[in-house]
Amino acid sequence: MLKMARSAHAYVRGNTAKFYDWLGESTVVRRIPAGPPIWICGDCHLGNLGPVADADGAVAIQIRDLDQCVIGNPAHDLIRLALSLETAARGSDLPGVTVAHMIEEMVQGYALALTAPDAEDHEAPEPEVVRSVRRRALGRRWKHLARERIEDVRPSIPLGKKFWALSDEEREAIEDLVREDEVRKPLLALCACDADGEIELLDAAYWRKGCSSLGNLRYALLVGLRRKGGKHERLALVDIKEAVAAVAPAAADAAMPDDHAERVVAGARALAPYLGERMIAARLLGRPVVLRELMPQDLKLEIDQFSRAEAVRAAHFLTYVVGLGHGRQMAPDARRAWREELTRRPDGALDAPSWLWEAVVSLAASHEAGYLEHCRRYALET
C-alpha cells in the first residue's frame, strides 16, 4: 500500500490487474489491432526491463520479469509500456508534448526491431540512462549481490526484516527439492559445474519481497556447488518464486503449458533468452515454483527523473528491446504485416497509431483516479 501511494508511476507498476480491467471495459479496446499471437510479457512496464546476464556472464538489456507472460496480443505489451513511460514522464514534470513524442519514438523503435530482430547493424542507440545501468551491471561481482541481497558476504542468510525463518516443513521440502535430479542437474549446469557434482544447501529463508509475492511462496537459498568429492567451488544465491495464474488475457486456443511454472519458463525463453536459460520449473509443497540463480548483473531500470531528451530516447530504445523479444517469434511475413499495421498513418496524423495514443490517454485518466482513491484509502488506514 505504501509503495503504491508514493507516486502515480509506482501505482501503475504495482497494479497490473487495473490495466487488464480497463482492457475488458474500455471502448478504445475495439480499435486495438490483433497482432500475431506470440509470447508477450503481460506486465511490460519500465521496471520490468533492465540488464540481464546469461549463464556465462554476458549482459543484455531484456525483459526481466515474466510472471504474467502468456501467448497473446503484442499490442498489449506496447500499451502497458506506453502507460508506464507516460506516468514516469509526467512524474518528471515533463509536458504532454514530450509524451506525444515518446509515443512516436516507441513505434519507431519497435518497427526497427521488427525490421531485423537478429541483425546487429540495426541496433538502436542506447540512451545514457540505460547505458549507465549497463555499465554498473558489468562491474558487479558476487560481493555486490551478497551485500545487496543478504547484507553479508559470509555463507549465511541473516534473518530480520527481509528474511524470515523457515518452518520445519518448508526446510525439509526445500532440501528434498535441491536433491531432485530435475532441479540439481540443471542448477549445476547453470552454475558451470559437472552434472555429477554436488549441491549443499548452506542456508535458506522465506523472502519477503515484492507486491506480487505477498501471500505466495518466495524463498532465498544459499547453496555451495562443488565437483563430486571436492571442496566448494563457488556459492550461488537461488531465488524460488511461486508461479501463479496470469491476469493477462491469452489468445484463443493458445498452446501454453497448464503448469504455471512451466508457462513462465517457456515465456522467458522466448522473450528473454538470457534469463530464460537460467530458470527451472519445479513443484514445492504442492505448488508450481520457478528457480533461478540470481546474478550480480541483474538490475532494474530505476529512473527517478527524465529529461525531455532522455525520455524520448528511452522510449525508442526500450520499445526496441520489447520488439526484439516479439520479432524473434514471428515468421518474416507475419513480422512484416505487423510492422506495416503499426506504421500505417493517414495524412497529417502523428507518427504513432491513433489507437495507441487514445489507449494511453484513457489509461492515464483511469489510473490517476485509481491512484488518488488508493491514496485516500491508505491515508484513512494509517
Strand order of the largest sheet: 5-6-7-8-10-9
The total of helices stands at 14
Roughly what percent helix? 40-55%
**Structural class from helices and strands?**
alpha+beta
Task: State the major sheet.
Answer: 6 strands, antiparallel
List how many beta strands DSSP finds: 10
Anisotropy-based shape: globular
Radius of gyration: 21 Å
Explained architecture:
- This protein is α+β, with helices and mostly antiparallel strands.
- It folds into 2 domains: 2-139 and 301-381, no CATH class; 150-254 and 279-293.
- Helices cover 46% and strands 16% of the residues.
- The protein has 14 helices and 10 strands.
- The longest helix is centred in the last third of the chain and has 28 residues, at 354-381.
- The N and C termini lie close together (10 Å).
List keywords for this structure.
alpha+beta, 14 helices, 2 domains, two-stranded antiparallel ribbon, 6-stranded antiparallel beta sheet, 382 residues, globular, 10 strands
In short:
The chain has 382 residues and is an alpha+beta fold. The protein has helices at residues 2-5, 8-14, 16-25, 74-91, 96-115, 128-138, 142-149, 168-179, 181-190, 260-271, 273-276, 308-327, 332-343, 354-381, and strands at residues 38-40, 49-53, 59-63, 70-72, 163-164, 198-207, 218-226, 232-242, 279-284, 287-293. The chain has two domains: 2-139 and 301-381, no CATH class; 150-254 and 279-293.
Produce the secondary structure layout.
Blueprint: H1 2-5, H2 8-14, H3 16-25, E1 38-40, E2 49-53, E3 59-63, E4 70-72, H4 74-91, H5 96-115, H6 128-138, H7 142-149, E5 163-164, H8 168-179, H9 181-190, E6 198-207, E7 218-226, E8 232-242, H10 260-271, H11 273-276, E9 279-284, E10 287-293, H12 308-327, H13 332-343, H14 354-381
Antiparallel strand pairs: 1-4, 2-3, 5-6, 6-7, 7-8, 8-10, 9-10
